[in-house]
Amino acid sequence: MTETTSGPARGSRSKGNKGGKGLRIERIHTTPGVHPYDEVTWERRDVVMTNWRDGSINFEQRGVEFPDFWSVNAVNIVTSKYFRGAVGSPERESGLKQLIDRVVGTYRAAGEKHGYFASPADAEIFEHELAYALLHQVFSFNSPVWFNVGTKQPQQVSACFILSVDDSMESILDWYKEEGMIFKGGSGAGLNLSRIRSSKELLSSGGNASGPVSFMRGADASAGTIKSGGATRRAAKMVVLDVDHPDVEAFIDTKVKEEEKVRALRDAGFDMDLGGDDITSVQYQNANNSVRVNDEFMKAVETGSKFGLRARLTGEVIEEVDAKGLFRKMAEAAWACADPGIQYDDTINHWHTSPETGRITASNPCSEYMHLDNSSCNLASLNLMKFLRDDDAGHQSFDAERFAKVVELVITAMDISICFADFPTEKIGETTRAFRQLGIGYANLGALLMATGHAYDSEGGRALAGAITSLMTGTSYRRSAELAAVVGPYEGYARNADAHQRVMKQHSDANAAARRMDDLDTPVWAAATEAWQDVLRLGEKNGFRNAQASVLAPTGTIGLMMDCDTTGIEPDLALVKFKKLVGGGSMQIVNNTVPKALKRLGYQPEQIEAVVAHIAEHGNVIDAPGLKAEHYEVFDCAMGERAISAMGHVRMMAATQPFLSGAISKTVNLPETATVEEVEEVYFEGWKLGLKALAIYRDNCKVGQPLSAKKKDEAKQDAAEAPAAEKVVEYRPVRKRLPKGRPGITTSFTVGGAEGYMTANSYPDDGLGEVFLKMSKQGSTLAGMMDAFSIAVSVGLQYGVPLETYVSKFTNMRFEPAGMTDDPDVRMAQSIVDYIFRRLALDFLPFETRSALGIHSAEERQRHLDTGSYEPIDEEVDVEGLAQSAPRRIEPPKTEAPAARTTAPAPKQAHNSTELVEMQLGLNADAPLCFSCGTKMRRAGSCYLCEGCGSTSGCS
């Protein structure tokens, strides 16, 4: 997209020099003489965001201006998270134009000031192209850019920080202070504690050292107090310890022992759930822990050899341990509580561009940024779905040329930001300005693979992902070499030139060796090969402007800003998603990528329609009409009956890792039934496949989540396989009986000629609690089974089984008698059970919940025909004043009559895609609730993301 003034051809740009003539900027999307803002339709929206737990309003701003194609969620998140100025004040930003202008104007001004552009005309094209790409959700900068750039506060642009700590009290106290200041600013940091003497070594005074684990307590307490940016979520931090540190076993055990403490306290009646009043008494919970292993250790594990733990000051071996036993201990701890993760030290430093300055010893909290101590990295991510092309003949292709041009634009902007950026400490500022680390990445890979008919866990899927990643990083380093010709290489380049060139050659060789699979990935590989050839040639001539170029970050909040279906490198969560509607309300839809995938696979429109209808009803593709079994894998997701296997995730990481400067933020999910051996396999294969870091999460392993009851033989097997989890406590629900007097509804019905009566009794304040079913023919087998069935359902309700669970399981169940009914709201029933639970849903579930299940009254169906919406309108509500960007539930009127068809709403309803998946598939998405809006979060890389309000649990 750009060129230096002396040569327009790609690959023949002028080498330039510091203080050279600058870059010529080529147009990608924009039209000369037309501003990007003038090419879209703008509309006003009202943003009102509520907490679903108590109905309170978290945020409100009316009349904000956005393009008409931006979704409700994207408008909500950008308005509430990124607009600056006090709400209600004249200084408050009120539209996307102001936000983009604030950021892009700052980038242009800095680029002109520091000599990046050949002329004012080139600076204007840069500004317009950057504005277009942000406006159309082609890419996004990381959150700190939106928070800070162009404001009066410090212009921090980085989300990722790495600190350092030495073996002195002064350095340890500096660590506490620096970490606290980073947390206060809303970011996170990581560091390696391995320089601190172990508890098995002596101090100069003659006493024993405290060891790093003891100092972790102080830092953990500090992080828990400050939290992140003054918010109610935990701070984000990573603590790393080398595998040869004498205190490594104590480090591995820290969280396991605390989990046992939590169990004991909760059994004693303390509130130990996530966010509970008493959870603060638990230590080491504010950090992700990782053990840094080296090849020597992993080979000792492979051969069953001994491995030496070394004194920190002298380097001598002070203890030998069984490598396999220590590796097993790591796997047991991760199995029991998800910590520690693992980082592969020799692999990380093999790809290090600046080893003459220092080794890479740690990472940021989410493990994607890995470079020098006391450094930072600013991130930006591209929306891959914006580069998928469909021609008139239905042929798909990935627009590699336009993708490369956008990468060049974004890398240029990211490098400019370092010129004006502020940093939380002087040391971090010095290192970042000297090495200019960047972290370009992408989102929506999972959606792109599905839309192109590739299974996430397939050779074709991995080939396309690898090709795109290689093209992205190769183009980034090519642009970095071109920038070096104009404004000079990074300060540390001269000392590290040989190593940097060696790493570029490693990337190029990996690109050449990669397997080409089909018509989609082959052209992308070709473009990547050309880019890497330019990198080697231009880099040798000019050097490089940046020591690091690319990472794969979680893309939590910015992924929602770009309306991405999937974050980072992750697959799709599920095939059905929850969508908020402009004007209020919500609906469930089948992901738009599904029809594209079916078209790519060769299905006809009527077949596609049938498969989509099946997915809408069942949430999966199993037994979908006309769908070939060999195509099921294309629609495998992170959750559901056909969830992607753990090694499928690891193999995808391995396909992209050789083409990244940094690493990948991703947690490999394992089912609750996974064994310790499976955790060992994942950690071992991660090393074999060349990953830099890896973390696992076994469903329900955290005490803050519900524990599943196990059969005795399963418990014994688990105990034998995982000594760290021998103390299994079963938590049983308590039955809540109805009072003597209880409100109820009696309904007579006819289904296929069979008559019956249903009496549904409810708690005075808390929903349905009892169902009695009587068939007209007493003594019949059907009547007896209905009696038994109603008792079972009633007992389940009283033990806390949500009504919507019964509804989702029993509606559409098909058996005789079936057919016409005498109920105007349920005209046809596939069985008596189908009718009963549709009627109960209409009587006892709130509108949003049953609407998500496709259950509507006759009045609502008529309203849909008349207005296009099922949602009821309360005449007393100011419809014009309702939040356009946030749904508001309208409760039916309450009456005192005990037989009224209104009760308190069921305790659970879907407010986002995660909760919808839980309801539809009967699964537990093992994730915390959002502190801001009360909905269940979902995984994004190594962290959690709330798709309702954009909050994260430690990543930006």
UniProtKB/TrEMBL annotation:
Free-text function comment from the UniProt entry: Catalyzes the reduction of ribonucleotides to deoxyribonucleotides. May function to provide a pool of deoxyribonucleotide precursors for DNA repair during oxygen limitation and/or for immediate growth after restoration of oxygen.
Biased composition (Low complexity): 896-908
Keywords recorded for this protein, A-Z: Cobalamin, Cobalt, Disulfide bond, DNA synthesis, Nucleotide-binding, Oxidoreductase
Domain of life: Bacteria
Enzyme class, spelled out: oxidoreductase
E.C. number(s) listed in UniProt: 1.17.4.1
Transmembrane domains' residue ranges: none
Organism: Streptomyces gamaensis
Name the record gives this protein: Vitamin B12-dependent ribonucleotide reductase
UniProt signal peptide: none
An example molecular function term from Gene Ontology annotations: ribonucleoside-diphosphate reductase activity, thioredoxin disulfide as acceptor
Catalytic function, reaction form: a 2'-deoxyribonucleoside 5'-diphosphate + [thioredoxin]-disulfide + H2O = a ribonucleoside 5'-diphosphate + [thioredoxin]-dithiol
Ribonucleotide reductase class II vitamin B12-dependent N-terminal domain residues: 47-137
Pfam families, A to Z: Ribonuc_red_2_N, Ribonuc_red_lgC, TSCPD
